[in-house]
């Protein structure tokens, strides 16, 4: 798989790879992360769990965590694991779930944690569009209150530091 990904990364403007290896294949994660030019995201690898984040940090297995609130089960647990990942200098990437609803709290979470990016899928269904619309509304609310609001753009990986 590694030999497949490297030329693709050279040829195409790919910004991130998520779960490119099986979650038991720590060796490939470690090897690939040694010279990985893109955001290298653990979803099934980390399951939004501090214990797995710790193991992945020890092994230097990835550089970003996908954050799924329902995997850890509580908002406080999600904040704890996100802060841990940010503390390691990793990116955090807030995600929707399969079979999601129009409940748009993940957008507030992405802004509040300054994750710089969110995954809600292509905007083809209302439960997906709801999250993007909420981001637009949050921006309007912040600017309306005279607060600062910065679009991270290409700095999305380090938004939490800006
Ligand atoms: C929807 C996703 O995952 P899950 O199927 O675990 O909810 C996802 O990662 O985009």
Automatic annotation (TrEMBL):
Alphabetized SMART domains for the sequence: Enolase_C
Transmembrane segments: none
GO biological process: glycolytic process
Pathway: Carbohydrate degradation; glycolysis; pyruvate from D-glyceraldehyde 3-phosphate: step 4/5
Record InterPro entries: Enolase, Enolase-like_C_sf, Enolase_C
Example of a GO MF term: magnesium ion binding
Keywords tagged on the record: Glycolysis, Lyase
PANTHER family named among the record's database cross-references: ENOLASE
UniProt record similarity statement: Belongs to the enolase family.
Name recorded for this polypeptide: phosphopyruvate hydratase
């Amino acid at each position: 798989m590694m030999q497949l990904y490297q030329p693709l990364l050279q040829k195409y403007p790919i910004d991130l790879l998520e779960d490119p290896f099986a979650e038991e294949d720590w060796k490939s994660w470690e090897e690939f992360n040694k010279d990985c030019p893109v955001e290298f995201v653990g979803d099934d690898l980390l399951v939004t769990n501090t214990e797995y984040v710790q193991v992945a940090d020890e092994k230097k297995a990835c550089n970003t965590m996908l954050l799924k609130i329902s995997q850890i089960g509580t908002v406080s647990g999600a904040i704890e694991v996100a802060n841990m990942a940010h503390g390691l200098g990793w990116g955090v990437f807030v995600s929707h779930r399969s079979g999601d609803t129009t409940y748009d709290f993940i957008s507030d979470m992405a802004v509040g944690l300054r994750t710089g990016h969110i995954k809600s899928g292509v905007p083809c269904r209302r439960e997906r569009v709801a999250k993007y619309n909420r981001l637009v509304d949050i921006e309007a609310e912040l600017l309306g209150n005279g607060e600062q609001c910065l679009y991270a753009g290409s700095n999305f990986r380090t938004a939490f530091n800006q």
